[in-house]
UniProtKB/TrEMBL annotation:
The protein, known as: Tyr recombinase domain-containing protein
Protein family membership: Belongs to the 'phage' integrase family.
Location of the Tyr recombinase domain: 163-411
Coiled-coil segments: none
SUPFAM superfamilies: DNA breaking-rejoining enzymes
GO biological process: DNA integration; DNA recombination
Keyword Transmembrane (UniProt): no
Superkingdom of origin organism: Bacteria
Keywords: DNA recombination, DNA-binding
Gene3D superfamilies: Intergrase catalytic core
Length: 532
């Protein structure tokens, strides 16, 4: 069998040394023939993941060279995306090359929703042909140029207001903020995790942009004289953009955004930075000069890398060659948000369940909130760190999917909420209701009112009045539900006067209808009992 290494050395017009060293865009070196390429601190190309096809040696050789060129010229993430997309195409390349037939068969298997896979890979295949590497049919470029292919579908979660992956509504955001504050005060989450989640919530920036932050990116706005006078919006955070057409440098400060941040977030990040500085000074046994301290990453779990070096000089030398080496990999931030989500006790009133957290939900929320406040597409794009408006139209447009979603949400409301109460009416001593009585305290009343029982053993963090719309609620037939109704009606009026959004009022309206239904059913049950 012809060895891949031999083919790599005999490519037509592209002869290569047997042990060819390549360097990724972020300064990481790898050998062309190696089974693994590390492109940055969190991105690794593993060639054993490529589907094995008999007679594909030339195909793999051209594939490796093309991907190596990509790794040297574009971001590690984009290179990894091309690797994964190409691996999806590989099983169709039975002829030992990328052919028109293989592309047609793959396209037919994708369906409309995944056709963007081919759209994403098209540029990679065209470059492969342009560079002259073996393993691709000369007819492929003309075939690809003849196709009209969609890009990745963006914004679907926003358009349909998905309660699991789409933007948070105000009540959810408030509940999440309350839980985060409580968890931080009670020591349930670390300073680093609290800072990370607050940063995503307030700025909506990409995980890759957050991972690139350094201590020196925290700024305080001063007067022209240089004198510092604390005032509103005096705190700033410099955030570099992860996606810019024509720019490939990591942490390109010439194109960075200076974002105003709240005093609370500034204090969290400042304290986090001081924590990092103290730890590094203890490891190195020196007092860090300001020039070194400001270059330390804000988010850093790769502490062993900092521990293993001797001091500032070695740090600066490594940082100059591989600038992301000491930063937390982007993938770790995703994992940490997931871990925070597992600990989170905040509940969504839309789903009556714990909220699903992800970095991009906060990004979608910021875009949605800005659109609701009347910001145009250009302003939203700037806030989210986009160079153009093609990815923010979803926040400002009306779509058929949105109307379908609104209809789905509103359909139950057209039935005068006859099913707003979905629980049961029970008597306090009714057999089969062994749960402990659900007890709530109505604000403004001294007496504790036993209104019913909960059909679940799980500890619930929701407001007491949401029980009336919960399927697990068992309302006592002889409880004073009228007092509960009066309190919710008063809350509704307070909310209306304070100018909260309609979705919050709608939730209270549903609760009032449910309590009225409970009162009606209780009255009916008592009458039936009297007749019996």
């Amino acid at each position: 069998m012809i060895q891949t290494g031999e083919i790599l050395n005999n490519l037509k017009g592209k002869a290569s040394p047997k042990r060819e060293i390549r360097t990724s865009k972020l300064g990481y070196q790898f050998l062309l023939e190696d089974p693994k390429w590390q492109l940055n601190n969190g991105t690794v190309i593993t060639w054993s993941n490529v589907p094995q096809i008999p007679g594909s040696e030339k195909l793999i050789a051209g594939y490796r060279n093309t991907l190596a060129n990509y790794g040297e010229q574009v971001s590690p993430n984009h290179t990894k995306n091309m690797f994964e997309m190409m691996n999806r195409l590989m099983p169709f390349c039975n002829a030992g090359a990328v052919t028109v037939k293989a592309l047609n068969e793959w396209r037919d298997s994708l369906g409309h929703e995944r056709l963007w896979y081919l759209g994403n890979l098209r540029g990679f295949l065209l470059q492969w042909a342009d560079w002259g590497f073996i393993g691709i049919d000369p007819k492929v470029p003309d075939f690809l140029d003849s196709l009209t292919l969609p890009g990745n579908e963006k914004g679907r979660a926003v358009r349909i207001s998905c309660p699991h992956t789409g933007p948070f509504v105000r009540q959810e955001y408030q509940a999440l903020g309350r839980w985060l504050q409580s968890a931080w005060r009670n020591g349930e989450i670390s300073l680093q995790d609290c800072s990370l989640l607050r940063l995503f919530m307030e700025t909506g920036r990409r995980p890759a942009e957050v991972a690139a932050l350094r201590i020196g990116d925290l700024r305080v706005k001063s007067l022209a004289s240089g004198e510092y006078v604390p005032s509103k919006d005096s705190h700033r955070l410099v955030v570099t953009r992860a996606k810019r057409r024509g720019y490939h440098a990591w942490r390109d400060l010439s194109t960075a955004d200076e974002l105003p941040i709240s005093d609370d977030l500034f204090d969290l990040l400042h304290n986090l930075g001081q924590e990092v500085i103290r730890a590094v000074e203890a490891w190195w046994g020196v007092t860090l000069p300001p020039a070194t301290a400001k270059e330390l990453p804000l988010f850093c779990v790769t502490v062993n890398r900092l521990k293993e070096i001797g001091g500032p000089e070695e740090f600066h030398a490594l940082e100059a060659r591989t600038p992301d080496w000491f930063h937390e990999p982007t993938g770790n931030l995703y994992s940490r948000v997931h871990a925070i989500g597992k600990a989170c006790k905040a509940v969504s009133e839309r789903t009556n369940d714990y909220m699903l957290l992800s970095a991009y939900r906060f990004r979608r929320t910021l875009g949605t909130v800005l659109a609701k406040h009347g910001y145009n597409a250009y302003e939203i794009a700037a806030a989210l760190g986009h160079d153009d408006t093609q990815n923010v139209q979803v926040y400002t447009e009306n779509s058929a999917e949105a109307f379908d979603r609104y209809e789905e949400i509103m359909e139950p409301a057209f039935e005068p909420l006859l099913k707003a109460f979905t629980g049961e009416i029970i008597r306090p001593n009714q057999p089969g209701s062994e749960r402990q009585p659900f007890v709530h305290v109505l604000p403004g009343y001294d007496a504790r009112i036993e209104s019913g029982k909960c059909g679940s053993l799980a500890h619930c963090h929701r407001n007491w009045y949401t029980c009336y719309t919960c399927v697990k609620f068992r309302a006592f037939v002889d409880a004073d539900h009228g007092r509960a109704l009066k309190e919710v009606e008063a809350e509704y009026e307070r909310t209306k006067v304070q100018g909260y959004e309609d979705s919050m009022l709608t939730g209270l309206e549903a609760t009032m209808e449910a309590i009225k239904e409970v009162i009606r059913l209780c009255k009916k049950m008592r009458q039936e009992g009297a007749h019996a």
